[in-house]
From TrEMBL:
Taxonomic source organism: Roseibium denhamense
Topology in the lipid bilayer: Multi-pass membrane protein
Main localization category: membrane
Region (Disordered): 430-449
Protein's name in the database: Chloride channel protein, CIC family
Pfam families found in the cross-reference section: Voltage_CLC
Length: 449
């Protein structure tokens, strides 16, 4: 049924009411999760500052190691599918190939996420909130016997609500469903509007409770049109970096999977300990990176410092994610892109007649470009960056960077990261993934047969 042919009915109203409940519930849940993390961050920072150098490092190493190990064991014993971001789990559930143990996942994701992210791992909040959003929608679906396409639509609405709450970016959340889950999402008037309703309400609840505007507000004015050529060149580099990132992430996860099952807690222990040390000696290399981005843009970092930070955060997210604890890769990817983009901008400003604010423009454009190359959702990359930074004057430059990055990744043979993660998950669970994924985009208002 197309959007034009759809008519409003009592069943539509009941379904949209469920979507509204999902949005409000997810907004409150995400706010509680974020508030808990902020409390842990501030408490942990206060503890470190109250201790002397050597003692602070030792205590941090022990605490972070214990927290990450506890998060790993909690996930393994309660809900193994709660490891990582969970986006691939939602896509698998919408294909009827992955379990939906909503209560177990909520417990493991919420408390495991607090332990893992609170320890300083290079992981983002958005992964847990997206997964928890879908599980909240699953709880509503079971309580009211929602089935079939409506059920899958409500799962997508919950996931979108989780992303909207994580970044206060409802439009990007809606587009994420359109681009990322185009293979699984049952497009219809009801399901599409349910995603919109849930995303709006989730972001509204979060903003009302936290009073937070754009998460990574960056003030950048227009840049010369001729500099778009430089951003296109940067997009090519980001496209290659995105393909390498996807390959490296899967490779590290496969490497850890070779460790005997009874010893897989050891990487979590070691990674947590190293993170605790870095919290004291190089804190910029830890955490999701939301707070780091604005500092990088406003401060005058040298090109070699930016390259070093890019490498450290790149490696940090690979090992943090592969450790098997809850956490997302969106926020770390944005921070990696910021470092790489600023390095490119610093080099450009030093060699060409460009204003210093071109550095910030490169940082903003790089966020979208790296996201587009890895996730292969260029439109989401553009809108997400706009909503996060508020730098709407840079829509054209970001479009250029995202387009060239996505095209480069495509021609290098790269594939979307969550598609690869889902295939890996299905393979490890003994299920055969689709031999040839359907890459044909689905038009709004239509459904695949």
């Amino acid at each position: 049924m197309s959007l034009r042919e759809a008519t409003f009915s009592g069943s539509d109203a009941a379904y949209f009411l469920k979507a509204a409940v999902v949005g409000i519930l997810v907004g409150g849940l995400a706010t509680g999760f974020h508030s808990g993390l902020e409390f842990l961050f501030s408490s942990y920072a206060s503890l470190r500052s109250s201790l002397d150098g050597g003692l602070a490092i030792a205590v941090s190493a022990c605490l972070s190691a214990a927290a990450v190990t506890a998060a790993f064991l909690l996930v393994q014993r309660v809900a193994p599918e709660a490891a990582g971001s969970g986006i691939q789990e939602i896509e698998g559930a919408m294909e009827d190939k992955r379990p939906l143990n909503w209560a177990r996942v909520l417990v493991a994701k919420f408390f495991g996420g607090l332990l893992a992210l609170g320890s300083g791992l290079v992981l983002g909040r958005e992964g847990p909130t997206i997964h928890m959003g879908a599980m909240a929608a699953e709880a509503i679906s079971r309580s009211s016997a929602v089935q079939g396409a409506d059920h899958k639509g409500l799962l997508a609405a919950g996931a979108a609500a989780g992303l909207a709450a994580a970044f206060n970016a409802p439009l990007a959340a809606i587009l994420f469903i359109v681009e990322e889950t185009r293979r699984q999402f049952p497009f219809s008037y009801r399901t599409y509007m349910a995603v919109i309703v849930a995303s709006i309400l989730s972001a509204a609840v979060t903003e009302q409770l936290t009073h937070i505007g754009p998460v990574l507000l960056i003030d950048v004015k227009y840049i010369p049109v001729w500099s778009f050529l430089l951003l296109a060149l940067m997009g090519v580099g980001l496209g290659a970096l995105g393909v390498f990132f996807n390959w490296a992430l899967i490779s590290v996860m496969d490497l850890f999977a070779r460790i005997p099952k009874g010893l897989r807690w050891i990487p979590a222990l070691v990674i947590g300990g190293v993170t605790g040390v870095l919290l004291n000696v190089f804190p910029a290399a830890t955490g999701g990176g939301e707070d780091l981005v604005q500092g990088l843009v406003t401060d005058s970092y040298g090109i070699w410092a930016l390259i070093l930070l890019t490498v450290l955060r790149f490696g940090g997210v690979l090992f943090s994610y592969a450790s098997g604890v809850p956490g997302g890769i969106f926020a770390p990817m944005l921070s990696i892109a910021t470092c790489a983009g600023l390095a490119f901008g610093v080099a450009s400003v030093s060699m060409l007649p460009l204003e210093d604010e071109f550095r910030a423009a490169c940082a903003v454009a790089a966020m979208g470009g790296f996201f587009a190359a890895s996730v292969r959702a260029p439109l989401v990359g553009v809108v997400l960056v706009m909503e996060l930074t508020g730098a709407y004057a840079l829509i054209m430059p970001v479009l250029v960077t995202c387009s060239t990055a996505s095209l480069t990744a495509h021609h290098l043979g790269g594939r979307p990261i969550y598609e690869q993660l889902l295939e890996r998950t299905l393979r490890l669970s003994g299920q055969a993934p689709d031999s040839e994924p359907d890459k044909t985009p689905v038009q709004l208002g239509t459904r695949k047969s």
